[in-house]
Amino acid sequence: MKFLVFLGSVRDSTPPRPARLGERVAKSCMACLQSRYSDHEFELVDVIDYPMDTVFKPHFSYAKSHVPADLDSLANKVQQSDGYIMVSPEYNHSMSPALSHLLNHFGSSLFSYKPSAIVTYSAGQWGGMRAAVGMRTFLSELGCLSVSSMIHVPKAQEVLTDDGSMQETQDKNTWFNYFAQTFNQLIWWAEATHQQRQLVDPLSMGRTFKRSPTERDAP
Questions:
Q1: Rounded to two decimals, what is the model's pTM?
Q2: Contacts of 36 by beta carbon, 8 Å cutoff, 6+ apart
Q3: Which residues fall within 8 angstroms of residue 84, CB to CB, at 6 or more apart?
Q4: Where are the domains of the chain?
Q5: Helix, strand, coil proportions of the chain in percent (round to 5)?
Q6: Contact status, residue 103 vs residue 78, Cβ threshold 8 Å
Q7: Residue 41: per-residue pLDDT
Q8: What whole-number distance in Å separates Cα of residue 202 and Cα of residue 207?
Q9: Which fold has domain 2-215?
Q10: Could you say which residues of the chain have pLDDT below 70?
Q11: How many CB atoms lie within 10 A of CB 119?
């Protein structure tokens, strides 16, 4: 199966220090995934590699001949993936606006009926858990419901080095076992939904609602 790991921060300056703390977390997650789930494919999608216009225009609103190539490529990757890992910092108790901005460029049908996993981090003691609570609602509206277990990395600068390795004071196996509690759930649900999508196309079960609001069957 194929999975996308979204690194949801474009902050690349100091202060605060260290810069790009989320990159350490994402690289550590990738190392865990590739070492423990080698039967599957994992690709890192760094939001900083997708600079978007100030004026928001979703992928599906472009004429086919005018869709930005990088946006179209990412849309195809999202559609072909079986699950997602969302890595986000916490800003004002919320998820990264850069992450939500990128994800909102795509219709929920590309994400629907697939699972997601939430990974948050911070330089402080809470590890972004308050942002994670809000991410559950956001991801459910995209259609990729998050698994119940989540990953939080408090004081990430004390846990991980620049390249995503564990600091000398940290035990890699202990952290990877912790990560695996969430990733195991993600893989299990991804396998289940992958098999069911082969039997029934979920997007064929209902039609797009195009009638006037006055013609609706329910309020």
A1: 0.89
A2: 176, 180, 183
A3: 3, 4, 5, 6, 78, 111, 114, 115, 116, 117, 144
A4: 2-215
A5: 45, 15, 40
A6: no
A7: 98
A8: 11
A9: Rossmann fold (3.40.50)
A10: 53-56, 206-211, 213-219
A11: 28
